Task: inverse folding
């Protein structure tokens, strides 16, 4: 009986440790940049420094399609792959950008991004 209790405690502790590890978010190392039109109409650049990996990021400056144009010309200079989306909440058309790639064309429009690693 004592052996079963010890085994059950060990299994429970192992599962708790695994759930703790799976709940931690990793960050991509580097910068993800994009351009957007500010309220004054001028083209501005925004940078996400060490953005979260495995988590959708809606770009706050361009989140509302009724109030802003999409961001353009994304540049993924992180160590993770980036999937950019034409709509907020990682929906709509999508394109993949490789790690430490070149700046994409200003024709590539986005409102959200998801960085991911193998």
Result:
């Amino acid at each position: 009986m004592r052996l079963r209790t010890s085994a059950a405690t060990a299994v429970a502790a192992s599962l708790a440790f695994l759930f703790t590890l799976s709940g931690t978010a990793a960050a991509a190392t580097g910068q993800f940049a994009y351009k957007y039109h500010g309220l004054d109409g001028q083209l501005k650049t925004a940078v996400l420094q060490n953005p979260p990996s495995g988590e959708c990021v809606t770009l706050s400056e361009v989140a509302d399609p009724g109030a802003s144009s999409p961001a353009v010309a994304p540049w993924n200079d992180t160590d993770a792959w980036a999937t950019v989306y034409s709509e907020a909440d990682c929906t709509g058309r999508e394109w993949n950008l490789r790690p430490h790639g070149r700046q994409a064309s200003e024709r590539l429009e986005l409102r959200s991004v998801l960085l991911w690693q193998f």
User: Anything to note?
Assistant: The helical segments are 2-22. The radius of gyration is 20 Å.
